[in-house]
Amino acid sequence: MSTQSEAVLEENLIKRLSNNGYERIKIKNEDELIANFKIQLERLNKCELTDEEFNKILLFLDQGSIFDKAKKLRDHFFIDRKDNPFYIKFLNEKDWCKNIFQISNQITMEGKHKNRYDVTLLINGLPLVQIELKRRGMPLKEAFDQITRYTLHSYKGLFNYIQIFVVSNGVNTKYFANGLKKDLQYEFTFFWKDEENHNIHSLDEFADTFLEKCNIAKMISKFMVLNESSKTLMVLRAYQKYAVEKVLHQALEIKQNGYVWHTTGSGKTLTSYKVSQLLAEDESIYKVIFVVDRRDLDLQTNKEFNSFCDGCVNTTKHTGVLIKNLTTDGKGKLITTTIQKLSKAVKTAGDKAKLQKIKDENIILIFDECHRSQFGEMHQTITDFFTNALSFGFTGTPIFAANSDGTRTTKDIFGKKLHEYVIKDAIADNNVLGFSVDYFGGAKLKEIPDKEVSKIDTKEFLESDKRLNQIVDHIIESYDRKTRNREFNAMFTVSRGGVVHKYYELFKKKDHDLKIATIFTFKANEDLSESEHSQDLLDKYMKDYNEMFETNFTSDDFRQYHADVSKRMKNREIDLLLVVDMFLTGFDSKLLNTLYVDKNLQYHGLLQAFSRTNRIINKRKSQGNIVCFTNLKENVDNAIALFSDPDAIEDIIMPPYETFVKWFNQDLERLFKLVKTAAEALELQSEKDKESFVLIFRDLIRNKNKLDIFTEFDWKDVKIEEQDFNDFRSAYLDIYAEIKQPKDDDPESILKDIDFELELLRNDQINVDYILNLLADLDKNSPSFDHDKKRIISIMKEHENLRSKIDLIEKFINERLGNIDTKITSVSEEFDSFMRHERKEAMCEIVDKERLDEDKARKVFEIFEFSGKIDDDLLKKAFLEKMKFKERKNKVKTVKFEIINLFDKFDY
What we know:
The chain is an alpha/beta fold. The chain folds into five domains: 6-223, Alpha-Beta Complex (tt1808, chain A); 238-421, Rossmann fold, CATH 3.40.50.300; 435-649, Rossmann fold, CATH 3.40.50.300; 658-742, Methane Monooxygenase Hydroxylase, Chain G, domain 1; 850-908, no CATH class. It has 37 helices and 24 strands. The strands form six sheets. The protein has a six-stranded mixed β-sheet, with helices on both faces. The protein has a six-stranded parallel β-sheet with strand order 15-14-16-17-13-18, sandwiched between helices. Strand 5 (114-123) and strand 6 form a beta hairpin. Helix 11 (319-327) packs across helix 12, helix 28 crosses helix 29 and helix 35 (854-867) runs antiparallel to helix 36.
């Protein structure tokens, strides 16, 4: 049976949607698109527009960014008629099923290039959903890459009103929100799901569910968020949408409490914001109060909520402001506060009296992370006071009988579980990362066997200087490997008592360059050390912090210190944060990838702590690293069984080192069947063979990316020498460089659609400074000079960020290196001077070679250096010779490539 073609896939989709209520319409180009838009706009608004009025609407719609246009879609346009002024709407957000639904295909648009789009869904004449298809068997990412090209080349006018993209090869189908090319990442494309979290893969089923006309209009109307902070569009994932609908149903129709169990890192903030926003918009609700259990989380929630909707949240800096917000009717129905403030307000006599008039109002209480403080007196006080309130909880780790303190569970407090999305689901969806857990991490006492270490739990042993020293040495030794040469950072959590102080002092005594900070709470009657009070010790550690970061904190500024530590951890200014309990819940940082553990964690506490490390940021962060210095394996297994299921361990905890070695060697066997050496790889002639090499070697570097995390990694364990692997790496980069070259006829290479994932090859330590240090030791008079020079060039070939500078380095070695008087100037200073001269010469060479006007060309260079963008119009004006259209088009492409390469070459 032959593979279903893209054309057949397209036609079948159109027929399916047409049968489900979409009107099929033939639109050939932009003019026909605009003409159809006028007709549908008049149908929606039950009016007739004059040409002048419609042109004003088009002018209004044409201005602004994609984000601005998303806001205009949800706005109205005023038609100023003297006899009967009125507003035009573009989208019926309230009755979403009453919009006008059409489907078209192969609409041709012309921008920098002419493109024809596969399938377009129009709502009220506006193209709001764009579907790009690839034939069965083709990678889904090729359709995604096609959309990113269209974003650069031809999306314009009304096509900038696209809200949602869909990509499919018939077998697999995903969706994502529109945005600028820099905001579009394949990692943030989503499968649609049913309510049980089963992915909907096939295009037919996706068309019947997600693209069903009422659902897609509802997704656009109710389940998208316009992020004011980042100026980006966000679309809810299926599990978020289902959770929001379940809470709304429970609150507005069933009128009972409930809770949502969505695992840590799955986007609970966005889900809870959407719930809060939609409830606050309901006329029957008096106030929606979003309750957190710490002041820092109150500030964080306000910031995040206001990023979704600027100014939509009433903040509560103190109890007086909270009472004012609660008792003021009308605007500002969404309030965020801490449980401490709210409980104080309802039980302090004066404040309680002011709140009497609203105690019976229809109030919604939404508790964030409801597994924590909501089980105490404060929660009870609040719910007892507001007699007509409903309570809803959001948690990543509910309290069940197995992990309770013997009293109440989440179900006891909040009632029915409304929706569930557990960590196994989130990892499968690539919403969060799995964990690589290293037990003992090599820091156990060497004379005690592994099986005996787990049995030792005496305070004397656990706090012995010998053990703590070994652990500190192991952290220092393993840190760069675990954090990928400090691209990421780490936390170290230790048990209560004086251990935190012992560890901090040990780190101070050791020889290392890690920036280490610590934060912990203290009490007036607490004595964590035999000689010094913990508050005094924290002040002492804060002095170190102040010297490191030029700050001026004391323990009296604890809140400000906490906020500063949080900011510096997120900015990766702190290498290692030493904590007891703080920062193990509620703290989210994508740049944190490692947690060292020397304490007993279990159930919700364990999963919450581990989950600090598993936020997704890029391909180099492939998992969260956990290094346990006490045997937590049974606790880990129990936590996963409770919060996912016993069979999920292999999905959540990554395989051991030996498994990755096995997989790496299996990929090597595939490689050696194709080519035996890097030289053979470079001699491959056919596109198909080159593609095979690239895909196999990409699998190898993905696997190597994971192997690099293990402290025990040794090249002896794999069936290739390190230099041979690096030679293949050079060949891989040569093929990438070859397809990157512009060609006049611009042939379609199958390699162009492959993501080479170059970030996995990046090594920030191997940079220009590293090469200059090698050059400083290079002696032209040494018999090993030629060998040493060849080694330096070989290192540069292996690293994509240095390859463009090979010719420069060779020229520098030949012309300058032997003539440097190191008493007067350094190799680095001489290289700076050399680079400035060569850069100027290279610019002049482009101007002369391409016959450009010098002043205009210099302006093009300046704009690119400042903004990273090439002004095409200015570049065209810089040509001194008149050219035909195609010749000029190819020349522009060539010169742009030369300019980009020039700045890449001289940037270091």
